[in-house]
Design brief:
This protein is an alpha/beta fold. 36% of the residues lie in helices and 19% in strands. Strand 6, helix 8 and strand 7 form a beta-alpha-beta unit. 43% of the residues are buried.
């Protein structure tokens, strides 16, 4: 049996998702595809994860069109995607008919390998996607999300491997999304799996803790023949080990990859220059961070937490949040920290710290999780917290999708004529509001991607005039922040995007263009809708506010309504997690200051309720 090592390069998906917020555009992928296709990779990961959302939301690319173009440009190489099992590419479970339709369309549009995982390692949530992939004649790769906890051990992962083989998977992947694997733990796990399961084994590990190259070598020595890497110019830190380094390390050994190192290095130089284009998305939180071995928090999750705390002027509470995350994870039965459980745990930890009372506010997703709406937790749930969150509602013991009725036809009707194809319908199902906006703009011919801020040096080299990004320092509550404006959307749009960095972390603000009015004395001002000026600060018991910055998802009451204490009146969203805000008193709704889609912060009254 040959010991040749096969490589999957993640440069077209996970590498830039990890380092530049998934912002690489198709225009920067296609020119190098011919050379990528000639290398001889086992596969190229190019779709799934956050790419679908980012294409629609920021890049204004049709993700299905991206897939078709990549398929055409890579005729000799397998394309590969990451699929969240019953969650597909979204953040909720979808009915089985939607899962089958999505997998089938992805296969039709050019996808070859489906890496299928579940955030809880609840394999019931993989079955439909695996069956659909097999039915489409494509490669179904069952995935084990690696993590460390009292509820996880080698024997448990081996049992998962055996079950994935029984479910009909073509291969198995160990997915170390947080960089928790150590070299000897890798060797032990790989040997146990290769001894127990008669399927090819793939290793996917991030370099966050600085141990991934050693883990790869131990995996190879113990029988793993498929390794994920990233072209060196997009490697390291929260990304992956460099492709070139592994190829060089295995040269003239029994594990020789057979790949042309010089040809890969040429591709690396191309992406080195591409990365400069996206400098506005570089972050201070994508380098090596060995703290993950203690707190088990992935690097990308840390940057999200930092952004949330900065918006609250509470960055000094970061250490408190980092200590709270393992406590929340324990209460939730030790879920692996991967989308969407990383957001569920992280957001709840932030709420616990900022409200100075644990679980005073519980997000809808935590409630759904504790009820069993995401599947079976790996460990024992905190019974007191579960009772507090779920109350008398019935727990879900079955596979959550078993409770979902077929929804494809209903959702197809919801989007209506804006959808010109079944692919459009599926985009809408994955991200209803984002895709609806995309399809409306496409219909109107107003699709415009977020602007890319050119680098000064590149502009000067071309002899172009270029205004440097505005940069300044601000002092807020005794702390100094460096702010650099890096780009802005097009003038005249109803909603204009502004891009900047705060201490090196990319941020974005959406500014709505306000209607101009003439004020007393002839001065010009602006109002939005019926609300002029800032919302009042919360000063009394009946003033409803939010615990953290976010957006209004739903307003559940109107002026004049009678409400009871504890009755939900608003739904807000932060870090892609929704939270119901309840009435603090029994009384009458006197004024509603917000509407769906509004951005809100904790120092504002959102609804005023007059106490009875």
């Amino acid at each position: 049996m040959s010991n040749k090592i096969h490589i999957t390069d993640v440069i077209l998906r996970d590498a830039h998702q990890s380092l530049i917020a998934t912002r690489m555009r198709i225009e920067d992928m296609l020119p190098i595809c011919e050379k990528l296709d000639a290398i001889g990779y086992w596969s190229l990961e190019c779709w799934g994860g956050a790419t679908f959302d980012t294409c629609l939301r920021f890049l204004k690319e049709d993700p299905w069109d991206r897939l078709r173009k990549l398929r055409e440009a890579l005729p000799n190489t397998r394309t590969q995607m990451l699929l969240r099992g019953q969650n597909l590419l979204g953040y909720r479970h979808y009915s089985d008919d939607v899962v089958r339709a999505f997998v089938n369309k992805a296969a039709e549009n050019g996808m070859d390998v489906f890496r299928i995982f579940d955030a809880l390692n609840d394999l019931r949530n993989l079955r439909t996607a695996i069956e659909a992939t097999r039915a489409a004649g494509k490669h179904a790769q069952g995935t084990i999300c690696y993590t460390i906890s009292p509820a996880h051990n080698v024997s448990g992962f081996v049992a998962m491997g055996r079950e994935l083989q029984a479910m009909g998977c073509d291969s198995i992947c160990i997915k170390d999304m947080a960089g928790l694997l150590t070299p000897y733990a890798t060797g032990e796990l790989v040997k146990a799996l290769t001894d127990a399961v008669d399927l090819p084994l793939h290793l996917h590990c991030h370099s966050t803790a600085g141990q991934s190259e050693m883990c790869q070598l131990k995996a190879i020595e113990n029988g793993c023949q498929h390794i994920d890497t990233a072209i060196s110019s997009f490697a390291g830190g929260t990304s992956h080990p460099p492709t070139e380094s592994l190829v060089a390390a295995l040269r003239n050994t029994e594990y020789e990859t057979g790949l042309d190192l010089e040809a890969i290095q040429e591709i690396g130089l191309y992406f080195y220059n591409v990365r400069k284009k996206y400098n506005q998305y570089e972050s201070d939180y994508t380098g090596v961070d060995t703290r993950v071995q203690v707190n088990q928090v992935p690097g990308g999750m840390i940057s999200n937490l930092a952004n949330q705390l900065r918006e609250q002027n509470a960055l000094d509470r970061m250490n408190d949040v980092m200590a709270e995350i393992p406590a929340v994870r324990k209460d939730l039965g030790y879920p692996p920290l991967v989308t969407p459980t990383s957001q569920i745990v992280g957001t709840q930890a932030v709420l616990n710290i900022l409200t100075d009372q644990r679980y005073q506010t519980i997000t809808n997703e935590v409630k759904r999780y504790l009820q069993g709406g995401y599947g079976k937790a790996p460990g024992v749930l905190n019974p007191t917290l579960q009772q507090q969150a779920v109350g008398s509602e019935e727990l879900i013991e079955c596979r959550p999708a078993d409770l979902l009725k077929p929804e494809l036809d209903r959702l197809r009707n919801d989007i209506g004529p804006l959808a010109k194809s079944e692919e459009d319908v599926l985009s809408f199902i994955m991200f209803p509001e984002v895709a609806h906006t995309f399809l409306e703009e496409r219909e109107a011919g107003t699709l415009r991607p977020e602007p890319i801020q050119p680098m000064n040096r590149r502009a000067e080299d071309k002899g172009e005039s270029h205004t440097a990004p505005t940069e300044f320092n601000i002092n807020l509550h005794g702390e100094c922040y460096n702010v650099k404006v890096t780009g802005a959307g097009h003038r005249g749009e109803a909603k204009r995007h502004f891009y900047f960095t705060v201490d090196g972390v990319p941020e974005e603000v959406l500014i709505e263009t306000l209607d101009e009015v003439v004020l007393d004395g002839g001065a010009k001002g602006a109002v939005k809708g019926s609300i002029a000026g800032k919302r009042p600060k919360p000063t009394s018991e009946g003033h409803v506010s939010t615990s953290m910055p976010g957006n209004i998802v739903d307003v559940m009451v109107k002026e004049g309504d009678q409400v009871e204490v504890g009755q939900p009146v608003l739904v807000t969203e932060a870090m892609k997690m929704e939270t119901e805000i309840q009435s603090p008193v029994t009384g009458t709704v006197k004024e509603v200051y917000v509407q769906k889609g509004d951005a809100v912060s904790p120092d504002e009254t959102l609804i005023e309720i007059e106490k009875n």
